[in-house]
Amino acid sequence: MQAHHTYIIAEAGVNHNGSLDLAKQLVEVAAEAGADAVKFQTFKADKLVSCSAPKAEYQTKSTDADESQHEMIRKLELDERSHESLIEHCRACSIQFLSTPFDLESVDLLAGRFDLPCIKIPSGDITNAPLLLKIAQTGKPVILSTGMSTLGEIEDALGVLAFGYLSDSKPSIEAFLAAYCSCEGQAILQDKVTLLHCTTEYPAPIEDVSLKVMDTLRSAFGLPVGYSDHTEGIAVPIAAVARGAVIIEKHFTLDRNLPGPDHKASLEPTELKQMVAAIRIVERALGSGRKHPRPSELKNINVARKSLVASRTITAGESFAAENLAVKRPANGLSPMQYWDLLNRKARRDFSVDEVVGL
Known about the structure:
Elements: E1 7-13, H1 20-33, E2 37-42, H2 45-48, H3 57-62, H4 69-74, H5 80-92, E3 96-101, H6 104-113, E4 119-121, H7 129-137, E5 142-145, H8 151-166, H9 173-181, H10 183-192, E6 193-198, H11 213-221, E7 225-229, H12 235-242, E8 247-251, H13 269-286, H14 295-298, H15 301-304, E9 307-310, E10 325-328, H16 339-342
Parallel strand pairs: 1-2, 1-8, 2-3, 4-5, 5-6, 6-7, 7-8
Antiparallel strand pairs: 9-10
């Protein structure tokens, strides 16, 4: 059986620092590492944050403390021409271009103008019903990150998505719930939506990761589940694959020492390559779940298992007993499972010490 292929998204995010050349280098690094997709972020600062919006604590530590969030992200915008250039560069490097839209116009750009194969929704927008609705109305498959959320908030978001996929009638909380609860709504969600477990902190403390939540999400919503990782290193995303993640998303950078909000919590090129290679090994190791001797094991069965042998000389007509039987390698004779069947039976011929015995 062919190993499951985990879809690996190398998250460039805003680690291009507003430079198209840097962004293209990130594409090349992701492709060289063997990732399936490289993902950026599409937004207009004026539509994303207010001028008074504070920075996150991790952003304050890694950028100019006197600079507002609006000022910080304004420098990180990619315009339409940059998107075109990056998409073409991804095509040349044989890697899928993805991006996360943070406003309604960006949805039109990614889903309409560039016709991306799917749309990634960040954790911060899981309660942004207008954005969720707009994305679902494009008909595109969705990858929905669930950081900072409760099961109830995820269910609400899925209701908006189900409604958007199915209906062009007037949206309302009641209509979202009805869409989510309908057979058609559940079917379209299973066809279109993948959830990503996520801890929204940079870097995320290991004790806050809780990979078992992936099992909870699968059980609660019946949808495929992946993992968006913000921990340091590569151990946790590898573990997530072993736990059944169908998608892995991980931030990367050319150099963690570059200025900018996300570089410190990102992998460097060598680490990204190591993560992808390790995930591919884990995929091969997972197998089908069916327990049976593997091809490589077959040759070792006779060597490792044991047979019933004579522990001393046994003469013809003598009864087999605990005193004249032993269990030893190799497994080229009667199985020890038949030990009790052999007891008190008479030997039909002579057996020398260590010779396999039989009925």
